[in-house]
Amino acid sequence: MPKMLRKSELPSKICPMCNRPFTWRKKWKKDWETVKYCSQKCGRMAKKTIVRAKFWILNSFSLSYFYENS
Ligand SMILES: [Zn+2]
Q: Does the model's pTM come out above 0.85?
């Protein structure tokens, strides 16, 4: 039982990409504070989403610019 208690005491976060909780892992020992996503897959997906969002914002800006000046 104490072992189980210890396990539940491990810090955990919720991955913003898949909304699933994930717990501290040894490989994150040094950079747990900066870990945001549960897996590389989610990290990559997040990057793609951010790039897409930036692209979309750029696009909508240039579109409104186009409409305002035509
Ligand atoms: Zn995830």
A: no
Question: E-strand spans in the chain?
Answer: 12-14, 21-23
CB 18 within 8 A of CB 42: yes
Structure token digits, residue 65: 């610019």
The full set of domain ranges for the chain reads 2-68
Distance in Å, CA 12 to ligand 1 centroid: 12
pLDDT bin (cut points 50, 70, 90) of residue 8 is: low
C-alpha closest to that of 16 among 36, 30, 33:
36
The tokens for 3 are 């072992």
CA–centroid distance, residue 10 to ligand 1 (Å): 18
